[in-house]
Amino acid sequence: MGFNDGDFVKVEYTARRASDGSLVFTTEEKTARDEGAYSNETTYGPQLIVLGKKSALKGVEDAIKSMEVGETKKVTISPTDGFGERDEKLVNVMRMSEFRDKDVNPYPGMQVDIDGHIATVKSVNSGRVLVDMNHPLAGETLAYEIKVVEKVESEADKVKSLAEFYSLKPDSVTVNAGIAKVAFGEKVEKDEKYLVNKSVLAQSALRYIGDLKKVVFEEEYARPEGKKDA
């Protein structure tokens, strides 16, 4: 059976460097804790992948397409199907003054934004900073263990899964006649991050769910307790 482009699939996976077995990333909280890689900023548990939409590495997508729900598979992913080969042209020396002008004090291992690209500081010496704009995993062969947990079938569940992917927790999601209604109650914090993620959710839902025509948000706001108009 397998899966096809456009399918919404939830998976658990653990990725390691094939060279030494060191952990790169895992969706399993226990594994992260056991190996000293747990992060409060990471949401653990099954991750949504929309096949054919570049939401995962090509090698990961290719493996999933040949799997079934509930199946676990170990695959080795080459740099070509992973994060690409290293390009030494992307390793450059910059003047320290270029960082100081931006109130940045670079140090080895620091990640910095250079013209919209994330780079890693490799060394700092005599007013010169060596930066590497390759992906940190470029050139690495990766060993993945992948488990397919679920295929998301209904349009409402697809919209809900996308919402969760963008760190949103709607109170309800319904889809009728191509119109998705996503409700956020008064208890949902509607800060700047919420507004940005809500916009991305709408764009992604319309892009990834072929029969969807419109996304409508229903929001509730309440006056904080104890506050009255002046």
Mean pLDDT across every amino acid position: 93
Largest pleated sheet: 5 strands, antiparallel
What is the CATH topology classification name of the largest domain? Chitinase A, domain 3
Provide the succession of SSEs.
EEHEHEEHEEEEHEEHE
How many domain modules?
3
Question: Which radius of gyration do the C-alpha atoms yield?
Answer: 22 Å
**Beta content:** 25-35%
Terminal residue distance: 64 Å
What's the CATH architecture of the largest domain?
Roll
Features:
230 residues, alpha+beta, Chitinase A, domain 3, Thrombin, subunit H, 4-stranded antiparallel sheet, 5 helices, 12 strands
Task: Outline the structure in words.
Strand 10 (172-176) and strand 11 (179-184) form a beta hairpin. The protein has 3 domains: 1-85 and 138-153, Chitinase A, domain 3; 88-132, Thrombin, subunit H; 154-223, Alpha-Beta Plaits, CATH 3.30.70. The protein is globular and about 60 Å long. It has 5 helices and 12 strands. The model has no long low-confidence stretch (mean pLDDT 93). The chain is α+β, with helices and mostly antiparallel strands and 230 residues long. The strands form 3 sheets. Strands 1, 2, 3, 4 and 9 form a 5-stranded antiparallel beta sheet that branches.
